[in-house]
Specification:
- This protein is an alpha/beta fold.
- It has six helices and 13 strands.
- It folds into two domains: 73 residues, Ubiquitin-like (UB roll), CATH 3.10.20.10; 131 residues, 3-Layer(aba) Sandwich (Cytidine Deaminase, domain 2), CATH 3.40.140.10.
- 28% of the residues lie in helices and 26% in strands.
- Helix 1 crosses helix 4, helix 4 runs parallel beside helix 5 and helix 5 runs parallel beside helix 6.
- The longest helix is centred in the middle third of the chain and has 14 residues.
- The protein is globular, with a radius of gyration of 17 Å.
- The model has no long low-confidence stretch (mean pLDDT 90).
Amino acid sequence: MYPVCEEVNVSLYINNKKFITFMCTPDNLKELAIGHLYTRNLIEDIDDIDSIRICNSLKNIYITSEFISMDDDLSLNTVLSSACGSSPNFNLKLNKILESQTNFHLERLKNATIKMFKLAVKHQETGGMHSCAVYNANKGLIALEDVGRHNAVDKIIGACLSRNYDLRDSAIISTGRISTDMVLKCIGAKIPVVVTRSIPTTSALELAKKTGITVVGRILSSEPIIYVNENRILK
C-alpha cells in the first residue's frame, strides 16, 4: 500500500453551536480544540472549559464553556483547512511586547529538534506529516504530529495546557515554515521563542520583531539563523 496522510473533517461545537471545522489528522482532538481556543485568546486557561467530549464516530468535538460567548463574531462555520494561511481572525492585542527572561542554548534547541523527529512516528511512516514540539529546559520535550502544521501547533499547545506545562518559559519547534499565523499563535500562547527547520516569511518576521518573539530558522543546519530578538539565544 502506498503511504498516505490521514486527513478528515472534524467539527468543533461550542455550547451546542458549530464553531469551526478542522481538516486534520483525527488524533489528539481534545488537545487540538483546547490549543486552538487558547491561541485565539478565546479562553485564558483550561479551567475556562466546563466540559469537553470527543465523538470519534461522528468526528465531532463538543465543548461547553460559560467563558465563551457564541453571540460574538467568532468565524462560525469556518472550515480550517490543513493548508497554509487558512487561520481565521485572531482576537489578540498586538501592541504589547512579550516579555520573557528565559534563555535557550542553541545546541539544546537543535538536540530537541532531533528528538522531535525521532518521536515523529507518522512522519517516518509516510514522509508527509508535520511535527511540532514544545521544549522547556526544566520539563523536557513534548511532541505531536498532524497533516497541517498549524493543527500540530494547536495540538502541542493544548497538550501543554492539559499538563500544566509553562509555555512562558518554553520554545516551540516546528517542521514547517514560520508564517504570520504561526507567530500569532505563539503570541496568543505567550511562547517567547519559535524554532523551525525551515525559514520564516517576511511578514512573520515583522510581527515577531514588533511583539518580542525570537525566531530561529534552519535549526538543523551547521549555522542556524537567529532572525530577530536574538538576546534569548545562547550560542
